[in-house]
Amino acid sequence: MTEQELVRAALDARHHAYAPYSNFHVGAALECEDGTVFTGCNVENAAFGSTMCAERTAIFKAVSEGKRHFCRIAIAGSSGDPCWPCGSCRQVLSEFAPDLELLISTAGGHFVKTDLTALLPHSFGAGNLGE
Question: Which residue(s) pair with 49 in the sheet?
């Protein structure tokens, strides 16, 4: 899948978002090493702490289907600015793919390419738990 196709999948996933409180629709498209793509969208809740971000929705869908190896994710919001993942999403992504490539898109499909290590240096992971 090309970078543009992955970004398009994230942009399309935004249409499924449930965002009655923020009205900020986010979509994500997570590509597995085997080429499988899982999409996700944000799902808000009146109890705000129960809200789920698009990135975590995509990764939880993938993990629940037995996938554990990811190479990149596209994230698209509903504004003219790139839609950067929140800290919780960065931590969850790091659990499975600390070197994950990210395509961070605007609503118009223009994207910035970076990696998770740049967004979450010195991350906490399984290796930090000791024996």
Answer: none
Which residues are 96's β-sheet partners? none
Please tell me the distance from the alpha carbon of residue 20 to that of residue 59, in angstroms, as a whole number: 23
Each residue's pLDDT tens digit, 16-56? 999 999 999 999 999 999 999 999 999 999 999 999 999 99
Catalytic residue among 3, 44, 55, 131: 55
Is 55 in the active site? Answer: yes
**pLDDT tens sequence across 75-127:** 999 999 999 999 999 999 999 999 999 999 999 999 999 999 999 999 888 88
Nearest to 54 by CA among 76, 82, 32, 69: 76
Alpha-carbon distance of 6 to 73, in angstroms, equals: 8
Which distant-in-sequence residues (6+ apart) come within 8 Å of 113 by Cβ?
3, 101, 102, 103, 104
- DSSP category for residue 47: S
pTM: 0.94
